[in-house]
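HUMAN: Ready with one sample?

ASSISTANT:
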Amino acid sequence: MRVMVVVAGALALAACSKPKEPDAQEQAALANFVPPFEMSRLDFGGVVERRFRRLDVNNDDKLTRNEVSQRLQPRFDEIDRNKDGAISNEEWSAWMMARFDAQDINHDATVTSDERERAHEQQQLDLPTPAEEPANTVAPRN
């Protein structure tokens, strides 16, 4: 009986105790935590397609200068390989996948946080993640 009383008391005491609050250093580490990044070439292909469709606000299967982001404006002529003044889905995909392949240092069809960081240090254009995709401003295509 005494053992049961002691166990019950210990359980009650444990239930009432507060968890340890993280100290300032632990809180700073938690606040600055960046989850590891890993994206396969196949997954990135889906991101590329969705991004093209979202940027193509008038649904004409090409991107004009006013449809690309300010960040991509300086690269418009580079992406528009046939120099027709518009970026086709094929041109967009080829350019984006070339960016992926340039960052895939070990050629395993996956870009990791370390590979992204190395590319960023070399001042290459960083790959967009699904979270960075533009908001869908038009109704989806059928």
